[in-house]
Amino acid sequence: MGGELCGRMGSRLCTKLAKSWSKMEQGLNDVVSKSKVGIYFKIEARKSCFTRELRAGTATFLTMAYIITVNATILTDSGGTCSVADCTAPANQTASSDCMFKPNDGYQNCLAKTKSDLIVATVLSSMIGSFAMGILANLPLGLAPGTLYTMAEIGGFVDDEGNFEGEYLAYMVDAGSTVVGSALGVSPIATFVESSAGIREGGRTGLTAVVVSLYFLVALFFTPILASVPPWAIGPSLVMVGVMMMKVVKDINWENVKEAVPAFVTILLMPLTYSIANGIIGGIGLYVALNLYDQIVWLIRWLIKMRRMVVNEQNQVTATAGVDNVVQVI
Questions:
Q1: Which residue among 195, 230, 247 closes a domain?
Q2: Are 204 and 33 in contact (CB under 8 A)?
Q3: Are residues 103 and 234 in the same domain?
Q4: Which parts of the chain span the membrane according to its record (predicted)?
């Protein structure tokens, strides 16, 4: 399409426009990099630029925007705060619990309102979390109901010792966002795996996360449209999320049974039990069981070592006391 447009306008004019745009973009990047905003986010220090951060923020939001509808749909399927009291009772009768499983106008209206409220809550909590991550931790990570360390590792922020700049504040924001999400009645808010899209686009600073939060702010005004998205329309996005999450499986040490088996059980239990928490609990429990023998052996060896150290100190004290007695006698 761009080639056809240049053909109609003429190659010279197209080249001139491209150069003008490039010059204007470079000027904007230079101004922002030298401003207080650029200095605060360390844009030049991290070898990035303003327009690149904007593109990264846009890419991150576009890949994670589906969660706004997905999260609300999943939570609405549980019934949310709707109860029998919201059902429309038949004439001269009292509504029974069956109304929650059969078509009922009153109950369906309650579910629709609940879904709309959950969309607003998801957007607000994600916006707050992403903004805090960008401002406080200066990391290009978007937060939504969904991998903090892995995203920092993908972005190349982790050093040889496994640490990264702003990690304390990043973990604090990640944990605090979970509290915010719970207070608003939605799933726990955490660093989203789709942040890798923005990182691959070139996002290197917290400005990317701030851009994501601004997009969530704009999404607040489109709540009715988002609420009308049918459940079957979000299936492909969930498949792609699963594909992205499975990429880290290659990093598991499959040669080590004590690491491979718990990881496999964790992956297997999540879809079979319809619960991420059950998968994690099963994996951690199996990991502890498989490593319990080694831990007991280590504890016994440590106790023996400590006992020997205590005995040696007692012998030294006894020997020193004996020498002092001999000196006094002499």
A1: 247
A2: no
A3: yes
A4: 118-141, 205-226, 287-304
- Same domain for 258 and 216, yes or no, is no
Ramachandran category for residue 123: left, alpha or beta (phi over 0 → left; psi -120 to 50 → alpha): alpha
Taking the C-alpha atoms of residue 184 and residue 285, their distance in angstroms, rounded to an integer, is 31
Range of the domain at 330: 252-330
Query: Cα 136 vs. chain centroid, distance in angstroms?
Result: 16
Run of H or E residues at 191: strand 189-191
Per-residue pLDDT of the chain (330 residues; tens, 9 = 90+): 455 556 555 577 777 778 888 888 899 999 999 999 999 999 998 889 999 999 999 988 888 888 888 888 888 888 888 888 888 777 667 767 777 777 788 888 998 899 889 988 989 988 998 898 889 888 887 765 556 777 777 777 888 887 888 888 888 888 888 888 888 888 777 776 667 778 878 888 999 999 999 999 999 888 778 777 776 776 776 677 677 778 778 888 899 998 999 999 999 998 898 777 788 899 999 999 998 888 888 889 899 888 888 888 777 767 666 655 555 555
End residue of a domain, out of 247, 273, 298 = 247
Number of domains within the chain: 2
**Identity of residue 233:** A
Residue 93 in any domain: the answer is no
Strand, helix or coil at 181?
helix
Flag whether 328 is in a domain.
yes
Structure tokens of 219? Answer: 């999404």
Please tell me whether residues 82 and 169 are part of one structural domain: yes
For residue 130, being part of any structural domain is answered with yes
Residue 189, phi then psi, degrees to nearest 5: -90, 125
Would you give the end-to-end CA distance of the chain in angstroms?
107
Q: In angstroms, rounded to a whole number, what is the distance separating the alpha carbons of residues 178 and 148?
A: 13
